Every structure is written in C-alpha cells, then in structure tokens.
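Much of the work behind modern protein science is quiet bookkeeping, done one molecule at a time. The protein below has been through that process, and both of its lines are reproduced in full.


***
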Amino acid sequence: RADSPTLVLVGDPKQAIYGFRGGDIHAYRRARGDAQHLLVLGTNHRSSRGYVQGVNQWYAAGCEALGRSGSEDVQYRAVAASNRQDGAPYTVNGVALARPLQLHYRADPHKGQAARRREALEACANQIAAMLASRAHAIEGEALEPGDLAVLLPTNRDIASLRALLQARRVPCVGGARDSVF
C-alpha cells in the first residue's frame, strides 16, 4: 500500500553463518522470522555454469544444512547459473576446465588435526606454486597470476602459515583479515 512504508532487508545466510563481512546469523534469523514475504535470488551471475553446477551437486550429495550449530533452519539452496561468466573460461593448456570445482580430500585417522591442517596448507601452497610456474593455467587467455587467486581460511594463524609457505616458494602474496571468517 502506498500509505504503508515497506522495509526491505537483504541478507545472505551463508555469509551470516560465518560472520563474513560482519554478518550476524542471529540477526538474520530474527529478521527472516519476522518477514511477511521472502524472496530468493535464484541465479548466480558471478560464477561459471560448471562451477555453480558443481557446488549444487556437492550440497545435494552431502548435507544442505549450513553452519556448525547443527540447526536445520539455514539450508543451502541450489541456484541456476546465468551465462554471464561462461564467455571466457578458465583454461589449462588452452582447454576449458571440465570440472571447475575440485575437492582434495586428505584424511588419515592416525594423524592429529594439527598435522592434517599443516599438510593441507602445504598441499595448497604446492598447488598454487605449481599452477603459477606452469603458465598453463589461464583466465581469458592470460596466464594465471598471483593476484588472480584467493584462499579463504578459518583462522588468521592459517593465513599467516599459508603466506609463509607461499613466500618460501617465491609466490608473492598478501593476507588480510581482522577476524576469523568463522
């Protein structure tokens, strides 16, 4: 109604769960609970079609509940992909990457969490260094550069560790975070 003001709130539960960019999951839940209408952005315009499909498949195969609390009230929602990001694919040796979402699972029940974390950071640094050194990886036909990469990690300690590992491999890098993503 024209005589009744409307307040529109935009929230992303995936960012709110982890406190990303100041998100607050409790504020999100309260606002969503009080909302008279919910609208969902169902199309991803920032990622390639293959990547969006990969993420959708990942959550469909696993658990769609998001967050650490075990609460089922915030769920991953599969989205469609626009074709905006499909024009200049990420390529390796000139061939578009067939599987843009790749997971590297390393589990050894005999190793503690600290050892597994250290190995995962080492593997990440090694892969980044190899990708950059090969010059085979390209975005829009241009060889991958350090500034094209970003790694999200759960703690500032992990960021500092990865930065040191990359610097030891002569990969220029920066790390910036005031607080943990989690």
